[in-house]
Amino acid sequence: MAPMNPLPKRFFPALLLPGLFLLTPTSAWALQSHGGSEGIFVHQLAHLFYAAALAYLFWDIGRSAFPGRGWRYLQVFCVFMILWNLVAFTGHWLGFYIANTDIVRPSGYFSSQLVGPFSSIKIIYFCATLDHLFSLPAIFFLFLSLRTLYHSVKKEDEK
Amino acid sequence: MNALPLSLSIVTDMAGSLLIIVFSFLALRYAWLLLRKQPENFLWGFLLYFCMTLASFAISRAIGHLVKHILLFSGKPEIWQILSPISGGINTLLMTSLGAVTIYYHKGIEGYLAINKKARSLKDANDQLGIAAAQLQEMNLHLEEKVADRTMELSASEKKFRNFFNNSKDMVFFSNSANHLLTMNNAGFKMLGYHDDESPSLNLVDVFNNEDELETYHNALKSQGFIEDMEIEFTKADGTSFPVLLSATAVSDEKNQLVGCEGIAKDLTRVKTMMEQLVASEKMASVGQMAAGVAHEINTPLGIILGYAQLMRDDFTQESEEGQNLSIIERQAKACRKIVADLLKFSRQSESARKDLSINEVLTDVIAVTQHSLNMDHINVHEDLADDLPPVIGDTERLRQVFINLVNNAHHAMEQQGSGELTIITRYLPDTHQVVATVQDTGHGIPEKIRKRIFDPFFTTKPVGKGTGLGLSVSYGIIQDHGGQIEVESPVAGDKGTAFHVKFPISLVEAASVRE
Question: Are residues B378 and B479 in the same domain?
Answer without folding.
Answer: yes
